[in-house]
Amino acid sequence: MKILGIETSCDETGVALYDSAKGIIADALYSQIAMHNDYGGVVPELASRDHVRKLLPLVKEVMTGADVRPDDIDAVAYTAGPGLLGAVLVGASFARSLAYGWDVPAIAVHHMEGHLLAPMLESVHPEFPFVALLVSGGHTQLYQVNDFSQYILLGESLDDAAGEAFDKTAKLLGLDYPGGPLLSALAKKGRSGIFKFPRPMTDRPGLDLSFSGLKTFAANTISKSDDNMQSKADIARAFEEAVVDTLIIKCRRALIQTELKSLVIAGGVSANHRLRDKMSAEMEKMGVTVFYPGQAYCTDNGAMIAYAGYRRYLAGHFEPLAIRAKARWPLAELNII
Ligand code: KG4
Ligand code: ZN
After folding, report:
1. According to the model, what pLDDT value does residue 336 have?
2. Ligand 1: which residue has its CA nearest to atom 21?
3. pLDDT above 70: residue 337
């Protein structure tokens, strides 16, 4: 079985083909970062317009590259939300129409379920049940995942998502958009212990998180510090360590509470090396195995949507001839009762 996956929820146009026998057989991604960089962040209207331009050429590239014809495709899966509504609408309209034209089912995929299932594409992958930490630019959430489509929200950020805090702090440090990977690179040149950032909401029980205070703390630290590269690198290091430690403390709590022994970390911030290294080392001490997506599948991509679409296909979740697009969409709404 072959599923075409289409992702357009933010600033990446992703198209991929999942083959149930072979895995991902073609994968194309166009990043709009250079276009948005001039504005210091994603401009929704420009994002939508660019998805319109890129989708058809990317579908052609993927189909030609894998030597697959429309007749070979069993379903078209698309991100139906959450995300920038205009951007989601472009991919949803395009994908639903393609499925209609090809006379195959269309499958609406929840973007965060795509992230959550992305580690399943790896040769060593998690088995249900597990705890999942989703850390992206728009979400920071902890779930107990009992099975496919059985998601219990354990805690989430009450304000900024971790990726958003990375991006905003990076901007304060004079870095380009999206700042997460750039801040992380700068932090490698920083010294540990020069600045001490708080670990928000770890001094009280519970699994909710908060990252906007760290960004404010960074702003205050920057204004009081020397304006040189070493000082910026030291601040980047302190900020990154604070985010990583906070996420580790909350994951540890979630694992103790649920008594589970597997942890999935997914979403753009799961590409972060310090997070991956330290999380794995700390969890090993608790006898917990941590699973991540491959580096290419941490940030937005079509492959995770094609795979989540395949799982929904198996569960018989097909869309009627209406186009589904949602800016907000709680993951637990997907639960099969
Ligand atoms: O999952 P994603 O591609 O998009 C959303 O669904 O939001 O996540 C993008 C976020 C951005 O905030 C970006 O700065 C962050 O992931 N990110 C990173 C790293 N790579 C991407 N943050 C920290 N370290 C990284 N290496
Ligand atoms: Zn994402």
Report:
1. 79
2. 268
3. no
The pLDDT tens digits for 113-170 are: 999 999 999 999 999 999 999 999 999 999 999 999 999 999 999 999 999 999 999 9
Mutate to test the pocket of ligand 1, among 10, 243, 279, 299 (most ligand atoms within 8 A of CB): 299
Taken in order of first residue, the domains within the chain and their CATH numbers are 2-116+297-334 (3.30.420.40), 125-292 (3.30.420.40)
H/E segment holding residue 150: strand 150-156
Tokens representing 59 are 């579908």
Q: Does the Cβ of 136 fall within 6 Å of ligand 1?
A: yes
Could you tell me which residues come within 8 angstroms of residue 304 by beta carbon, excluding any fewer than 6 positions away? 5, 7, 114, 115, 117, 118, 121, 293, 297
Tell me if 269 CB under 6 Å of ligand 1: yes
State pTM to two decimals: 0.98
